[in-house]
Design brief:
Layout (H helix, E strand, L loop, with lengths): L1 H22 L2 E7 L2 E7 L4 H12 L8 E5 L3 E4 L21 E2 L13 E3 L13 E2 L3 E4 L6 H24 L3 H10 L1 H20 L8 H9 L12 E7 L1 H8 L15 E5 L3
Antiparallel strand pairs: 1-2, 1-10, 2-9, 3-4, 4-8, 5-7, 6-8, 6-9
Helix pairs in contact: 1-6, 3-5, 4-5
């Protein structure tokens, strides 16, 4: 029954994405020697959409490889130094990086087939800017709902402890005194502290999966740990089977497929 439910949800997600796609301006096709994948680019991530299309028109991606394939995680490609790369050659960010501001949104998340922009690590990229000169597509896996809740708590509990230490702990003795001596002053101070704590929590980067995220991650699957860290700017609408085929390829110690997966990209109906 779980398998049937997962298939039905995947069909629903695909149909939903197709209906969303009809309202979007641009679709692309990623051609590979293992088959084609069609994707919609989101209009509400305009910086990523426009820069990606500019590079497609320049044929920047043509002849590059899906050079990083991590099973049940992602396939990543498009780096300029993957073009004509020799077997075993290390491939990274190339010499044509195009950095743009992130465009995070809870509306677009790392479910199966999400088209996303990689970036340099936090230690050299504190603003989490994207490198749109390459891209990755999510394969992921399914997660029990309980694991998603644990992910939330792992991020949120330390935030709550820090906020409590900052705003509540310094006033504990005063609150205890006012509670018995001046109820009005106690209520005023407690309300002030509560509002400060709630505001600080809202701007803290806390984690809370939406119902849509939970439904997708527990059925079709994805990589929820990447949400809020990397920009999702599109979605595969046709060719999920090609994504899975590439993700199952044998790879070397650097996660590069032993058989090259060559890329070219076209803009549909332009």
């Amino acid at each position: 029954m779980k398998t049937i439910r997962a298939i039905l949800i995947l069909i629903l997600i695909t149909l939903t994405e197709n209906s969303i796609g009809l309202a979007q301006t641009y679709h692309i096709t990623i051609h590979t020697n293992y088959g084609d994948m069609r994707a919609v680019l989101y209009d509400d991530t305009p910086k990523h959409r426009d820069e990606f299309l500019r590079l497609v028109r320049k044929k920047h991606f043509d002849g590059t490889l899906f050079y990083r394939v991590v099973k049940n995680f992602v396939i990543q490609g498009g780096s300029s130094d993957s073009r004509n790369a020799k077997p075993g050659q290390h491939i990274g960010y190339g010499d044509e990086a195009v950095n743009i501001d992130s465009e995070f949104s809870n509306k677009h998340f790392h479910k199966l087939g999400a088209l996303c922009a990689p970036r340099q690590p936090d230690k050299v990229n504190m603003l989490k800017t994207s490198d749109i000169s390459q891209f990755y597509i999510v394969r992921g896996r399914t997660y029990p709902d309980s694991i998603l809740t644990k992910m939330e708590k792992a991020i949120n509990n330390p935030i709550k402890r820090r906020i409590k230490e900052q705003f509540l702990v310094p006033h504990r003795e005063e609150l205890a005194r006012l509670k018995t001596s001046d109820k009005k002053a106690y209520n005023a101070l407690a309300t002030e502290i509560k509002e400060k704590m709630e505001f600080e929590y809202r701007i803290s980067g806390y984690k809370e999966f939406t119902p849509e995220q939970r439904e997708a991650y527990t059925t079709a699957g994805g990589t929820p740990e990447l949400d809020g860290e990397y920009t999702v700017f599109g979605q595969i609408t046709l060719g999920i089977e090609v994504l899975k085929k590439i993700n199952n390829l044998k790879v070397d110690k650097n996660d590069r497929p032993l058989t090259d997966v060559k890329i070219s990209i076209t803009i549909d109906e332009e």
